[in-house]
């Protein structure tokens, strides 16, 4: 950011004008006034974190990136990341779990839904550091020994997808629902899916797929082992 007029700075990344001390949408922390091209610090609890901005470059240097550990699809992972990194970006970029999609990036479409400790979470609305020491499950973690999960099979059989972009999020939301409600009513399925948008299939077949998966999972649980 560079000073535009007394009390205001303009962000070099998106050009937005902001009052001094107002949180930047990119940086996420209040900025303090700086002279053009000068070094700037961003206030944060527990002390200032040095950030370097130049007029000609929007490069931001972030020393001391935290190391995060969590379980991903049953296996421990450990990586360094900027503390502002979204969980979806860490999953896709750092950890290569590209089955988790990004549709809107604003917490509306549900394409990025994953399970965190069994709860359906929109991973574009959660920081990677918030997943520390938790159990994260993505669409890649549902299959077992090369066999698809019953929910995945039901989506195929019921034609619960067309382009497939929303499908990982739909399936992870369904997995969360069936984990807590083994025999959901149609109304309960519709309610569970209210945060997941599909732009091409429509919801009838998706609901049918979840009902079929529920029936099969219940039958499997009742079957003798
Ligand atoms: S990408 Fe996360 S809700 Fe749309
Ligand atoms: S199958 Fe295309 S958006 Fe849902």
What does the model show?
- The protein has 5 helices and 10 strands.
- The protein is of the alpha+beta class.
- The protein folds into 3 domains: 1-63, no CATH class; 65-141, Beta-grasp domain (Ubiquitin-like (UB roll)); 142-225, DNA polymerase, domain 1 (Orthogonal Bundle).
- The protein has a 5-stranded mixed sheet, with helices on one face.
- Strand 4 (40-42) and strand 5 (49-51) form a beta hairpin.
- Helix 2 (150-157) packs across helix 5.
- The longest helix is centred in the C-terminal third of the chain and has 19 residues, at 204-222.
- It binds FE2/S2 (inorganic) cluster (2 copies).
- The site of one FE2/S2 (inorganic) cluster has 11 residues, from loops.
Shape: globular
First and last CA, distance: 63 Å
Counted up, domains total: 3
CATH architecture name of the largest domain: Orthogonal Bundle
Class from helix and strand fractions? alpha+beta
Order of the strands making up the biggest sheet = 7-6-10-8-9
Radius of gyration: 22 Å
**Helix-strand pattern, N to C?**
EEEEEEEHEEEHHHH
What would you give as the CATH superfamily of the largest domain? Answer: [2Fe-2S]-binding domain
Beta-strand percentage?
15-25%
CATH domain class name of the largest domain: Mainly Alpha
- Count of discrete alpha- or pi-helical segments spanning 4 or more residues: 5
Task: Give the low-confidence spans.
Answer: 1-60
In CATH, the topology of the largest domain is named DNA polymerase, domain 1
């Amino acid at each position: 950011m560079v000073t535009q007029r007394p009390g205001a700075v303009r962000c070099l990344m998106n050009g937005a004008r902001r009052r001094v001390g107002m949180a930047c949408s990119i940086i996420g922390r209040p900025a303090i006034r700086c002279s053009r091209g000068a070094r700037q610090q961003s206030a944060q609890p527990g002390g200032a974190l040095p950030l370097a901005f130049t007029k000609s470059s929007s490069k931001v240097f972030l020393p001391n990136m935290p190391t995060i550990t969590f379980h991903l699809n049953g296996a421990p992972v450990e990586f360094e990341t900027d503390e502002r990194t979204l969980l979806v970006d860490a999953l896709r970029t750092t950890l290569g779990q590209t089955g988790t999609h990004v549709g809107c990036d604003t917490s509306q479409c549900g394409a990025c839904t994953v399970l965190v400790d069994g709860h359906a979470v929109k991973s574009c609305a959660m920081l990677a550091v918030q997943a520390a020491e938790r159990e994260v499950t993505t669409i890649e973690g549902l299959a077992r020994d090369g066999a698809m999960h019953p929910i995945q099979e039901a989506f195929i059989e019921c034609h619960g997808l067309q382009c497939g972009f929303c499908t990982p999020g739909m399936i992870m939301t369904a997995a969360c629902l069936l984990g807590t409600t083994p025999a959901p009513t149609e109304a309960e399925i519709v309610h569970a899916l209210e945060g997941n948008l599909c732009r091409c299939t429509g919801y009838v077949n998706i609901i049918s797929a979840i009902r079929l998966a529920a029936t099969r999972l219940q039958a499997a649980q009742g079957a003798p082992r």
